[in-house]
Specification:
Largest sheet: 3 strands, parallel
Shape: flat
Structural class: alpha/beta
Radius of gyration: 42 Å
Number of strands: 6
Number of helices: 4
Strand order of the largest sheet: 1-3-5
CATH architecture of the domain at 76-145: Ribosomal Protein L15, Chain: K, domain 2
């Protein structure tokens, strides 16, 4: 086969439909648009998901409620049984990675109380559950969390400060109003005295 003998397959190429060229062409008068209606007008556009005015599919289907907390910290859970795979008595994110317990040290680690310990270990990770801490300390080990925990009392005090600031603001506003009233009374008395002093001179 030569290059000049190449032909497109049958049905691949079609003639362009020529509308508005008389009724004899089969596409005259209304040019395939039908009689009246929104789609027969020029400039007609619609959304791809428009369903003719009925309730669209995206509104007919149920959707998930709630929200996704952007400040949530996701920890890598590790059981106490996995700590036995670490060489030595020092448990750190790097030692867990070297032992093959975790893949990377980019995410924070949390020790859970699944299993038991056979010896004393010095655990230095980001979080340790209360029951896991008790088991580690009962075996003679120590626990050190790499990231400090937030004190819940600070959150409560923040709310109290905001509430206590409101009465103080009200008290200061009342004092300012009282001082302004006293000043206005003093000005009125001074003006009255001045008018009384001017009356004899006029006579």
């Amino acid at each position: 086969m030569q290059q000049h003998e190449l032909r497109p397959p049958r049905g691949a190429k079609k003639n362009r439909r020529r509308v508005g060229r008389g009724n004899a062409s089969g596409h005259g008068t209304y040019s395939g648009r039908g009689i009246k209606g929104q789609q027969s007008r020029s400039g007609y556009k619609t959304r791809p998901f428009f369903e003719g005015g009925q309730t669209p599919l995206v509104r007919r289907l149920p959707h998930r409620r709630g929200f996704r907390n952007p400040f949530r910290v996701e920890y890598v859970p590790i059981s106490l049984n996995d700590l036995g795979r670490v060489d030595g008595d020092q448990v750190t994110p790097e030692s867990l990675r070297d032992a093959g317990v975790i893949r990377s040290v980019k995410k924070p680690i949390k020790i859970l109380a699944d299993g038991d310990l056979s010896g004393a270990l010095t655990v230095k990770v980001h979080r340790v559950s209360a029951s896991a801490r008790a088991k580690i300390e009962a075996a003679g080990g120590t626990v050190e969390e790499l990231t400090p925990r937030k004190d819940p009392e600070q959150k409560r005090q923040r709310g109290k400060k905001k509430k206590s600031a409101a009465p103080e603001a009200e008290a200061t506003a009342e004092e300012d109003a009282a001082s302004s009233d006293e000043a206005s009374e003093d000005e009125a008395s001074d003006a009255k005295k001045a008018s009384q002093d001017k009356e004899p001179d006029g006579e």
